[in-house]
Amino acid sequence: MFKDQVAIVTGAASGIGAATAHLLAKRRAIVVLVDRNQDGLKRTAVMVKEAGSTAVIHQSDVTSEDDAARIAKEVTTEFGRIDVLATCAGIGIPGGKTVLTHSAEDWHRVYQVNVMGTVHWMKAALPTMIEAGQGAIVTVASQLAFNSGGGAAAYIASKGAIVSLTKTSAVDFAKQGVRINAVAPAVIDTAMSRSSREGSNDPEAMQAWRLSRHPVGRIGEVDEVAKAICYLAGDDASFVTGTVLMVDGGWTAA
Ligand SMILES: NC(=O)c1ccc[n+]([C@@H]2O[C@H](COP(=O)([O-])OP(=O)(O)OC[C@H]3O[C@@H](n4cnc5c(N)ncnc54)[C@H](O)[C@@H]3O)[C@@H](O)[C@H]2O)c1
């Protein structure tokens, strides 16, 4: 499905990003893995190679605009194309905080990683896609941007920003052949969701609350988000742009 295509995945060392890189590799893409966690990158690269594809590792912090520009340029020089960008790198701010209890540093940090990390990578990949007259970008928002659980104001607002950024950029680049969409997962079993549960006052109560929010009666798996990302990144979604695909076990419908 992605044969001979080049896909860049940020946040590829773990969780949703690692699963997305793995699935893209199974579907024959050359995968460029970007993350700040070198050990995790190596683990994902092994999965990509075992899937029979090529992995290129770049240890980098997505808050660096210069790094994103340099890496995208290197990828373009080496392979001549960037077909897919999936921006999966992201952080949460644990602790059940609100606008009253978040520090200015909380807001700055979460926006730098979640929002500007996405902006820098879109800006880095778009010129090559526009030049080719085709490309697909998939960002990672959150179900919480639509139906908030409360208690994570900076994180949830950053995901709202991703939704707006995705929609408006889809309009900006539609005529150049670049489709831009988002996935909005509910709770997915990853290091991030486990650490926010364990960091809560009552992890058992939080787990019970989470299960109660998903009509399907369980939280999601990383592969289920990876499949949604690959759908939006691939030709099956050729007429889909500026949309947000809920991957939420029914949370927002309930
Ligand atoms: N897990 C969930 O329940 C859930 C739900 C909705 C949205 N999301 C979003 O999915 C995305 C992936 O999260 P995940 O759950 O797979 O978490 P994760 O912690 O398993 O993976 C996040 C990855 O991003 C990387 N990363 C973080 N900051 C970075 C930076 N500054 N530069 C480079 N890499 C950085 C981490 O090293 C890690 O490999 C995030 O944007 C998250 O907000 C997750």
Output the keywords.
254 residues; alpha/beta; Rossmann fold; seven-stranded parallel sheet; 7 strands; globular; binds nicotinamide-adenine-dinucleotide
How would you describe this structure to a colleague?
The protein has 254 residues and is of the alpha/beta class. It has a single domain, classed as Rossmann fold (3-Layer(aba) Sandwich). It is built from eight helices and seven strands, in the order βαβαβαβαβαβαααβ. A seven-stranded parallel beta sheet has the order 3-2-1-4-5-6-7, sandwiched between helices. α5 (153-173) links the parallel β5 and β6. The model has no long low-confidence stretch (mean pLDDT 97). It binds nicotinamide-adenine-dinucleotide.
List the helices and strands and how they pair.
Layout: E1 6-10, H1 15-26, E2 30-35, H2 38-50, E3 55-59, H3 65-79, E4 84-87, H4 104-132, E5 135-140, H5 153-173, E6 178-185, H6 191-198, H7 203-213, H8 222-233, E7 244-247
Parallel strand pairs: 1-2, 1-4, 2-3, 4-5, 5-6, 6-7
Helix pairs in contact: 1-2, 1-8, 3-4, 4-5
Residues 11, 13-17, 35-37, 40, 61-63, 88-91, 113, 117, 140, 142, 185, 187-188, 190-193 line the site of nicotinamide-adenine-dinucleotide.
Q: Which percent band covers the strand fraction?
A: 5-15%
Spell out the helices and strands N to C.
EHEHEHEHEHEHHHE
Shape estimate:
globular
Question: What's the CATH topology label?
Answer: Rossmann fold
Structural class by sheet pairing and helices = alpha/beta
List each distinct ligand once.
nicotinamide-adenine-dinucleotide
How many E-type strands? 7
Gap between N and C termini: 34 Å
Domain tally: 1
- Give average pLDDT, whole number: 97
- Broad CATH class: Alpha Beta
Count of discrete alpha- or pi-helical segments spanning 4 or more residues: 8
**Main sheet overview:** 7 strands, parallel
